[in-house]
Amino acid sequence: LSIQSPTKKVNNFTEVERIFNNIYDLSCSNLQRDKYQTFASVYQLFALLTGNDKNTIQSRNYTHFAIRYMDNNYAEDMHIKDIADSLHLEKTYFSKLFKKETGITPSEYLSNLRIQKACRLLRDYSITISETAASVGINDAFYFSRKFKNAMGVSPNKYRKEYK
To answer: Is the pTM of this model over 0.70?
Structure first.
């Protein structure tokens, strides 16, 4: 980008949109770690807009597919090995590619995605904690509550009360 050319054609709009949605979702949190993830997403956006190396493009394609798959299927019982297998990659290699592109592991991405979706459900809908957990792909409400509290610093019930 420059003064003479202040715009850039985006070939991968869905990825840019995903990053912007991630930034928006993270902006609702007061946790320091989420602020760092917001900065990481902004840097990821800049990298997407400026990068063109062939290996980066290949790993970005794998990562993009995996992110799209997780975004569309987070409510299902999903394992990282299944995603890697669908890409014909070994799980460890896939995880390294994903982390190199995003800064987090596929498991962390999926967990963060589920927590973000749960936050929306807790803020916007009057469904039980068990229903919220099941809606984001976690069938054990107690496990969901522990994961949610670890991620957000408060229980799902307290979160609902504070942010509704």
So the answer is: no
